[in-house]
Prior knowledge:
Distance between the termini: 46 Å
Helix content: 55-70%
Amino acid sequence: MKMERFLHLFRVSRDLHEIEAMSARELADLGVTRAEAMELAALPDDVPQRVTEMARVFGLDPSEVMQDRRVWHELLQNCHHCHDLGTCHRFMAREEKDEPVDTTTLTFCPNRRTFDALNASLAG
Length: 124
């Protein structure tokens, strides 16, 4: 566990230094500000995994969700600041992962409304 923590801190430090060295043009090409890039680099590794898994639960293709960098950043930040992480972890650990889920019951997810809106926009 200590080694994992050390490796995470090392990766974050390396990533932050790389971001600091990037030009404004390089960051603009990525579609993020320097501050956003720094926030994203410091996110725990499990946050993008939770967001992509929850996107699938809502019937979305994670690669499509990631296309709009602003939306992707918002989803990651909402997930990172989730107030009901325990419920999320229990939901993600469910045995029947292939079974359809009534997404209206997933009120614990801070990204539920965004996922619903994305579904509506992709369907229309």
